[in-house]
Amino acid sequence: LAPSNIRAIAPYQPGKPITELAREMGLKPESIVKLASNENPLGVSPKAYEAMQDALEDIARYPDGNSFALRDCVCRKFKLQPDQLVFGNGSNDILELAARAFLTPGTEAVYAQHAFAVYALVTQATGATGISVPAKDFGHDLDAMLAAVTDKTRIVFIANPNNPTGTLIGKQALRHFLASVPKHALVVLDEAYDEYLAADIKSEALSWLDEFDNLLISRTLSKAYGLAGLRVGFGVTSPAIADLMNRVRQPFNVNSVAQAAAVAALQDDEFVERSYALNQAGMLQITQGLAKLGLGYIPSYGNFVSFHVSNAAEVYQQLLKSGVIVRPVAAYEMPDYLRVSIGLHSENARFLEVLEQILQARS
Ligand code: PMP
User: What positions belong to coiled-coil segments (predicted)?
Assistant: First the structure.
């Protein structure tokens, strides 16, 4: 019954849940190390946890459909106006709202090879045509992407940093690109991992919104803010684009517990700083460990790193058997790579230890 564009969609493959692996392998859930979904290994900010518990008192009521308190908090923190914002059930929701507002059959969306999978998914769901532009050194080839923009292009998706490659586009190159994209195309700039960037390379794109009224910046509370399970993200754009996206948004897409937790999490700078510092140290631990094992990796600006290993699918299964969940990235045209998220020091050590055993058993 479904149209061909829907039947052609390759389902998104999430990281294997801990409970599922525990059941399959007869392992204790607490013995499993999950480094598969770029989550925050520190868990949740205690302040957000408290706010969540308070919000539970009111769950018989509908949430605030306009996320007033959260909107106010985001406006203050990032110096924005309320009408520039759209809130989503995770930032995936923001990506989908953009697709639903701007794509129709006959139009095109441009994204990079190895870019975050959801861009292709939301594009295909609208019946529009997805144009995947070959990557350069695993990163976005902005010149080629610009050349791929046609009269039919309505969205250009850019992930900065990108997942699963971890590559980052420099500020100047990005700004030049934004200035070159024709105004009939919306640039969706996905900054899910911005909090993991060092101060000198952090995005400045929020301050460019006055200049580019075809720019939508997407942010999430799933990563450094530690709220992946609650599903909160937001888009920042021109009031005209925010208005269009809000028209296709479900009225209560962000639940009340998530809104309350997000306000508290956004105010807990200390937690985000700790998350950043842990990630810096863990990235060094894992990349040094991979190098010691003789494995190449793609230098990453996120809270994960993709490394090269022959027979990656088999290594993934062997890691699973030992209770370590990482992420295969074959669906991203990277069949010889696995992606590992940066965890706690002990989790990273366990991953490296099990990986070493697997590689030793091979030789
Ligand atoms: N964008 C990128 C680049 C991501 O890696 C992710 C999470 N995997 C998301 C968006 C979506 O995250 P969420 O829906 O949890 O905000």
Answer: none
